[in-house]
Amino acid sequence: MEVKFNHVYYVANEKTPLSHLVLGDINITFKEGTINGIIGRSGSGKTTLIELINALILPTKGNISVGSKVISKTRKIKNINNLRYQIGLVFQFPEEQFFCKTVKEEIEFGMKYFKKSVKSIEKHVSDALLMVGLDDSYLNRNPYTLSSGEMRKVAIASILAFNPKIVILDEPTVGLDNKSKENLIKIIRLLKKRYNKTVIIVSNDTDMLLEISDHIVLLDKGKIVLEGDKYDVFKQDLEQYGVKKPKIIEFEQMVLKEKNIKIGYRDDINDLMKDVYRYVK
Amino acid sequence: MLNKVMIGRYYPIDSFVHKMNPLAKIICILLFVVMIFLTYDFRFNIIISILLLLMLSNTKVPFNVYLKTVLSIKWLLLFIFLINLILGTSLQITIITIMRLIYVVLYTSILTLTTPPTEITYGLEKLFLPLRIIGIPVNKMALSISLALRFIPTIIDQGNKIIKSQASRGIDYNHCNLKGKILSLKSLIIPMFVLSFKKADDLADAMEVRLYNVNSKRVNFRQNRWGFYDTFLVLMHLSLFVLIVREVFL
Lengths: 281, 250
Description:
CATH architecture of the largest domain in chain A: 3-Layer(aba) Sandwich
Largest sheet of chain B: none
Order of helices and strands of chain B: HHHHHHHHHH
Helix content of chain B: over 70%
CATH class of the largest domain in chain A: Alpha Beta
Number of helices of chain B: 10
CATH topology of the largest domain in chain A: Rossmann fold
Number of domains of chain A: 2
Strand content of chain B: under 5%
Helix content of chain A: 25-40%
Number of helices of chain A: 10
Low-confidence stretches of chain A: none
Oligomer: heterodimer
C-alpha cells in the first residue's frame, strides 16, 4: 500500500493566538514494500506527519492518499476504521494506551474493534507475542507491571496482531536494550521481506536506520530538507539539522579526510585495521 | 477533541486588564458574583451588563472566545431552563437566572483568560493572607492550588495523546453511538488515572530531591504592583456593590 502526501500543510491550534505552522508543503511518497525513515530534531513535525497518515488529525491544506482512500479536510472519510485497520501505529510512549487487566486482553482489544472472529484472535495473539520475542507466560500478566521495553514490545504486538498493511513506529528503539533492538530490527526486516508491508519509522537512531531503511526523509522546521536514498542523505552535512551521522559513515568520512586515501584502494589491510582500532579505542 | 475546552485557558495578548493586579481582579470577581446574585432589579441588571461589556471589551480577547466559553455550558443552561419550566417558575425569573449564570461564567473567564495560573495563585494567596492569624496554612493551600492548576493543561494533553493512541487501535470516539461512547470512555479514563498518579508521584519526588520546603518564605518572580486601574476598578465595583446592598436590604 502506498502513502502519498500532496502539498500538505498543517497548522496547529488554528484560529487561536497560539497557532503556528507545523508542516509546510510536504510532498512525499512512501512506496509499498519499503522501509522509510523520518529523521529530524525534536519539534520538526515528525510525529505530526505520522498522525496525518492515520487521520488522527486532518491536514489544513492539501491531501494524503493512503491506497485508494484520500484524507483531506474537506472530504469526510465514511468508514474511518477501515482506514485505521490497514495502518498500525505504535506511539512513542506505549504505556499511555494500556488499560486492560492482562496483556492478552490488551492485544485482543484492537482486533475486537476491527471485528475479527474469536478463533483467529486466539491464534493471532500468541503469534504476535512470539514475533516480538515474548513467550506465552506474559499473556496473563498485568501490562503496568512490565518494564518499559516490554511495554513497547506488547504495544508493537498489539499492532502486529491485526496484520496492518502499513506499520508506523514512533521512536521504537528508545529504552530498549541491545538484544531487543536487534530483535526489533529482525521483525522490521521480516515485515518488509516476507509480508511486503510498508514500514515508516520515526527515529533519531541513525545507526539503526542505516542498517534497515531504504528511503530517508529529513525534516527541519516543518519542511522537507533532504529526501532520498539512505547513503545519499547520510553523507550530507547533518549536524546543522540536529541529527547525528551513523557511526560507520562518520568513520568512513574521517578516514577519507585524514589519510586522503579511499578505503577501497588501501595498500595494506593492516593500516585499515589500525584505523579501526584507533577509532574504537 | 479536548482542544475545544476553553474554560481555564490563558489568552496571551497585551491589554490593560492583562496588566492588572491579580488580587484586584479576584476582588472584582467576588464583588461582581455577589452583587449579581443579590438583585432582581431591572435597572441594576442593566448597569451590571454595561460593566461586564466594558470589562470584556477592554480585555482585547476576541469575542468568539467568550462565545465558545458560554457555548460550553449550553447543556447546563438548557437543563436549568427545563427544570424551571417544570417547576412553573415565571419566565422573567428563568431568564434572569440564566443570564446570571452566563454573566458569572463570562466574568470568571475574564480572570482565567487574562491571568496566568501562577498569578491567580498569587492573588489567592494575598487574598487569604489575613487567615494566617487564625492558623490556616495559606502557603500550603496556595501551593496545592497552583499545582492543581498547573496540571490542567498537562492532563488535557495527556488525554489527547491517549485518545489518539486508542483511535489508532480502532476506537472511534467521534462517530459511534451513545452506548459505544460510554464504553469507550473506559479506555480513556483508566490510563488517565494511572498516568496522573504516576505524574503526581514523579513531581513529588522531583520537589523533594530539590529540597523543597513548604514552610519557608517564598518570593515572586514577577512583581505585581498595585496601579491606578486596580484602585479605580475595585472602587467602581465596590460602590455598585454598596448601592445594590443598600437597595436590597434597606
